[in-house]
Description:
Blueprint: H1 9-25, H2 31-38, E1 60-63, E2 66-68, H3 71-81, E3 88-92, H4 98-104, E4 109-114, H5 117-129, E5 135-139, E6 152-157, E7 172-182, E8 191-199, E9 202-211
Helix pairs in contact: 1-2
The structure holds S-adenosyl-L-homocysteine (SAH).
Amino acid sequence: MSQPDLPDPQQLRQSARALRNVLESEGIRDSRVLDAIENTPRHRFLPEGQEAAAWDNEAHAIGCGQTISQPYIVAVMTSALQLTPESHVLEIGTGSGYQAAVLSRLCHSVVSVECLPELHRRAQQVLADLGIRNVRCVQGDGWQGWPEEALYDAIIVTAAAPEIPPALPAQLKPGGRLVLPVGPTGGEAVQELLACTRRDEELITRILCQCRFVPLTGGDQSDR
Ligand code: SAH
């Protein structure tokens, strides 16, 4: 059997530009976020043999029952984080590492937590192969956040929780942003994508859109 061809660089550039245009036409305005998505090689984060689907605006299976998020949702969530080059960010749910790679282009440092060892290792390897040095992948239960490296300017949760995990607000700097899907999971269930800002001890919350994520595990499982 012949080896699959290496992706043609010109074709890649065209696919990346086409995805950018789709996101723009769907209302994504933040040009830094659009640049980050255009310049992040999404095909590297998909399982072998599925790279051809990498540049469509869809979620895809990445193994272990998990998914790489749809680029549109990555764009909405990343825009809502309002990152600066100084931001220190926590991601809960590394998955393929794609969202972390997009974040890495827009901020100073990312800590990304994944509970499944296989996905953690795979993402860590892909990010290293791409020479991305400002993402630290850690393995553990992100339901508790990652207190060791708090406080964060922004926290993004890329799996759906039935409520805002109670440990997270205290790990945000004052004025920091928390973006996450909250609601039921399973079957056709949809969640609300929330963007929250920490004001003193309070969270000011607004709803961005509806979305569909895999469940966030961990915490107290008895009520789920
Ligand atoms: N951001 C990812 C998509 C994440 S899918 C990407 O860009 O590809 C959600 C991920 O969250 C899955 O990999 C799942 O294993 C992980 N996850 C679920 N619950 C978790 C928890 N409590 N702590 C850490 N990771 C969790």
